[in-house]
Amino acid sequence: MLKKLYNWLNTIRLYPFTLKKAIILCVLVRVFWVFPFLLFNINFGIIPDIVILLLTLLAARMMGKDELRKILVWRHVSLPVFFGILIMFFGFEIIASELNNMFQNILPVPVGYFEEMLYMSDNFLIAILSHALFPGFTEEIMFRGIIARRFYRTYSPLKTILLSAALFGIYHLNPWQAVNSFYFGIFIGWIYLRFKSIWLCMFAHAYGNVLALYMSSPYVSINIYSDTWRHPVWFDIMGLFLFGFGLLTVIVLSREKVQTVSGKEGG
User: Distance between alpha carbon 217 and the CA centroid of its chain, in Å?
Assistant: First the structure.
């Protein structure tokens, strides 16, 4: 029985790596992550983050002996591109926050839902580790390092980005996080496609999570059918401007890099 299970799991790493295999991998990691907390009730501190990290590393090892080395390879990214990404994601968080406000007007979050579901430490360091650094490292290994990197050999770049972003959203197991995670996954997937740097994706992911946690957004009350909270218009315009400026900067600078490399190879 165990041998059959091992052989079945072993087929996941074989190419082509399809959407079905990616779904199975995500379900396995989620199930083995949730089980000990339901059994032993140890959902506190950074213990859940350590467990999901270990499971993700185990999943990477299951995909091949050299998988982690290939995923974690260092690729240089220029400082202007790095700052362009900082600006882009700052603007993105403003836009995503407003889209989330609009979505919650349609589908309100049940009272106390996230308080019961998510542990938020009062300790700033623990909160940063649990909600920014650990997710940035763990989820990027899973969704860009394992899934997207293998999808690129099976699907077109556009389909790869959309499928990996959709899985990333669904992986959060609730619609309020899933929607913004899908948007976020699209741009992180695009960055990974463009720069092939998992470390850049990890940083952008952690940076985005920190902004989502601690960026104080101005709000105004909009009374249409009931009181709802939205950003003031100037704040949304600023977000669109920063996002557009950062995105354009990254596109232009990355094209210049490709042209420079092509010129050197031609010479």
Answer: 21
